[in-house]
Amino acid sequence: MAGYRDLKVWQLGIDLALEVYRLTVGFPNSEQYGLTSQLRRAAVSIASNVAEGHARKTAREMQRYANIAKGSLAELETQLIIAHKLGFVAEQNFEKVMQMAEQESRMLSGLLKSIADPS
Predict the structure, then answer these.
(1) Burial grade of 91 (CB within 10 A; 0-12, 13-18, 19 or more)
(2) Residue 7 pLDDT > 80, yes or no?
(3) What is the DSSP letter of 46?
(4) Which string of DSSP letters, residue by residue, matches 69-117?
(5) Strand, helix or coil at 54?
(6) What is the pTM of this model?
(7) Measured CA distances, 111 to 13, 33, 68, 80, 96 (Å)
(8) Contact 76/39 with Cβ under 8 angstroms?
């Protein structure tokens, strides 16, 4: 069985978290404990939950943690939209991260489908 680091969904989750960290460096200091922290936590949670679910070694646990990752991804997208509307994120950067998030969502959905129907 491959390790979680071999999963494309985990790898993209890591890339997404790194991109969010780069993006939030330029946020106002007043947002350090607000959107900056929330975006970073949500982004880190995505790959972390994929890894944790995989480490649990059961389909049921993998499904549970993949669903948690999807929830974290929805949080990330929502917070990113807010940050963009507040003018903290340039359009080009917003589009890039949202595209990564959409790809991650598709991959998580595929993972969940493969767990539900392993054949």
Answers:
(1) exposed
(2) yes
(3) H
(4) HHHHHHHHHHHHHHHHHTTSS-HHHHHHHHHHHHHHHHHHHHHHHHHHS
(5) helix
(6) 0.93
(7) 13, 33, 13, 24, 23
(8) yes
